[in-house]
Amino acid sequence: MPLKLPSPPYWAVIFSSQRSAADQGYANMAERMLRLAEVQPGYLGAESARDSAGFGITVSYWDSVEAIAAWRQHAEHLVAQKLGREVWYRDFSLKVARVERAHASGQGRDA
């Protein structure tokens, strides 16, 4: 089910990745990062999907670029980033975008 987010504007961090064959605690760390992000100031939610070949996209939503910057520098998140680069991801990209408009079924018009 799609997230219910506030009316724009807000920010989206789009993380696309291709997993490597290594597991080495990935699922536990992913769950820990989600729980930790949920309590960060400015966090609005996240949506994520991964296919059977290991390609995934996670979009996290934030109320400001300052909140995104703080999350990027969080000590435990820095550890996860390092493990991602060195162990878990064969390839990845990250994009940050400002959401100006949003629409979902049942809303009747653009928000």
UniProtKB/TrEMBL annotation:
Keyword hit for Disulfide bond: no
Could you list the residue ranges that cross the membrane? Answer: none
InterPro entries, alphabetically?
ABM_dom, Dimeric_a/b-barrel, Jasmonate_Hydroxylase-like
Keyword annotations for this protein?
A: Monooxygenase, Oxidoreductase
Q: Does the keyword Oxidoreductase apply?
A: yes
A single Pfam family it belongs to is ABM
GO molecular function annotations of the record: monooxygenase activity
Q: Please state what the protein is called.
A: Antibiotic biosynthesis monooxygenase
> What organism is listed for this UniProt entry?
Aquitalea aquatica
